[in-house]
Amino acid sequence: MSKLPKIIWSKIDEAPALATYSLLPIVNAFTQAAGVEVVEKDISLAGRVLAAMGLAEDELTKLGDVVLEEDGNIIKLPNISASVGQLKDCIAELQGQGYDIPNYPENPTNADEEAIQAKYGVCLGSAVNPVLREGNSDRRAAKAVKRFAQNNPHRLRDFAENSGAYVAHMGGKGDFFAHEKSVTLDKDQKVTIALNGKELTSIDALAGEVLDGTFMSISALRAFYKQTIADAKEKGLIWSLHLKATMMKISDPIMFGHAFEIFFEDVFAKYADTFAELGVNPNMGMSDLEKKIAGHAKEAEIKADFQAVVDSDAPKLAMVDSDKGQTNFNASNDVIIDASMPVVVREGGKQWDRTGAAGETVAVVPDSTYAMFHEEMVADCVKNGQYDVSTMGTMQNIGLMAQKAEEYGSHPTTFELAEAGTVTVTGEDGVLMSFECEAGDIWRLARTKDIPIRDWVRLTVERTRLEGIPAVFWLDENRAHDAELIKKVNEYLKDYDTDGLDIQFMKVTDATRFTNARVREGKNTIAVTGNVLRDHLTDMYPILELGTSAKMLSIVPLIAGGGLYETGAGGSAPKHVDQFLAEGHLRWDSLGEILALAESLRFIGQKHDDAKLQALTEALDVANNGYLDNNKEPGRKVGQPDNKASHFFVAQYWADALAKGDNAELAEKFAPVAAALKDNEAKIMEELLAVEGKAQDVGGYFHPNDELAAKAMRPSATLNAIIDAI
């Protein structure tokens, strides 16, 4: 082995974790031949739970140090951003496997339970990304991927003529957008947040940092929900709620809970005493409610009353799974806006009702800050028709996300207010902001540090010059936070040569219209956005353009000099696991991981001149093109080649490219490998397909048994022997 840096491959959750059992042995067999070792580090939900309880190494904290190193190099697969329900299920599974860990106390009654809740709390929501994202985001489709999508267009369903589908939001009436205030600090200082003079928390803020304070009026939110439900009933539309409770783990479950209560208002009123007695929390959704009422004398009656509302079609309620009878309110983490809203657009403005029938929907996105993007996406298709995948241009994204930027880093400073009164944000020289709120309102403070903003501008100028296309900062001078950023961006742009570059500023609605008009003309555009819009855009456009966001390049050039390479999108991962456990068929597409590996190797090559590494990387590029050109992505149905077969073909194409390459040492090493993989293709495929249609036991959902999972994901003895002998 040479002294080339290691690549860290994250061990995570669900479908991409299962795929790793098949893919990583292949990856290591090839990369070690060029002196690069790929090592796995466990940052799965189960791994983090065990670490929180002192029963495993805290690999996430260690990786938090790696991203601060000059040569830090991490490939990060999609991980679970756990809801309380998922956390409790994970704990139960680990207890069943013999781990001595306590239950999660939802409502702690003493100091010991409060301490346990605090330990587990670090595993909730977006616990991984804020630690690892010490850089801003560069997301785009690889040219080969885009070309393949245009040549092999997936289906987008047409919008009906005079479609009634639309997005409803609060329009700046009582929402986070309406109440936002923002300041830029002139010096380092302690900042204290208080309610009626009682401290809620404090932070050590930095000079140049932008602080935003805002709140969601719960009375306005509940009135908004009632109005949209009435509108959906009147217009005959399916009512659907779209939030992101996984990332916004404090605010969005609360907003979800209020919607649940409003939609089933009569049921919650009728059983108020029973629900209070059983500790029912609407923020947890119907699945948790059913667990709480299980065995109660009124269980059947309560379920019947809920079902009567669903069956009434007044209005129809969107379903998560019609076959299982699971509604939009099953659990707060079931409907994740950046995955669910692209489906609404893809399906022609429709979602599914309790019968499994698709119908036009009113998509309810309460806060107008980002709802304006989704509103315009749907309105554009209602007006202009569905996109043409074979000709549409592409959206690239430069996202401001380093160092827990903006709302995604606001969990420690988000509060459901226990009483009405004044929230103050006080710095060294006095009150910076103040807000008059009601009891139950959701108040939050978000932070955006100066160094990430400077890096965001640098990355934008760099990518704009490389691509030669317009770049648009999605910033609205009428939004308090954006107004502060506009001042900073204009100042930092002066540090660069921008002659000949087309760099513009637009509010969200205008930026969406500008981008969409270019997309329809087959033109490409760079969207330069904040953290939340980064998430929404880099699922919406790729799902329309490519059929999935899992095929996007997601590169995070770390501020310290290293690289973080994110792969795929985990929104569909749970359903993939269900299918695999039932049928032995894993339809997860690992192309995102393989593309990320190529970029990771390329990054090492930029810093270390190594002939074998260069040959390995170039051969992987050839393999990726072969994967696409020969359409080797996994089939969706049992009996078709699945994820394991895709990995085999990547190995075959990679070995063949090395055997035909210019590096004599690697050519000699991989020529017999290439021959063996080609000569044994029929036998290997037979062995891989032999397990199709058979149920699989991997020992756990959150914490699989490594031996069982490896056996299930490496069923071809012939392939294993060839790979393991490299």
Write a brief caption for the model.
This protein is 46% helix and 17% strand. It is an alpha/beta fold and 726 residues long.
Low-confidence stretches: none
Specify Rg, calculated over alpha carbons. Answer: 26 Å
Largest sheet: spatial strand order: 2-1-3-25-24-4-16-23-21-22
Measured between the Cα atoms of the first and last residue, the distance is: 14 Å
Shape: globular
Strand content: 15-25%
> Roughly what is the average pLDDT, rounded to an integer?
95
Instruction: Tell me roughly what share of residues is in helical segments.
Output: 40-55%
Alpha-beta classification: alpha/beta
Find the count of extended strands (DSSP E, 2+ residues): 25
Main sheet overview: 10 strands, mixed
Number of helices: 28
Describe the structure.
The chain is α/β, with parallel strands linked by helices. The chain is 46% helix and 17% strand. The strands form 5 sheets. Strands 2-1-3-25-24-4-16-23-21-22 form a 10-stranded mixed sheet, with helices on both faces. Strands 5, 10, 11, 14 and 15 form a 5-stranded mixed sheet that branches. Strands 6-9-20-17 form a 4-stranded antiparallel sheet. Helix 16 runs parallel beside helix 19. The longest helix is centred in the C-terminal third of the chain and has 19 residues, at 611-629. The chain is globular, with a radius of gyration of 26 Å.
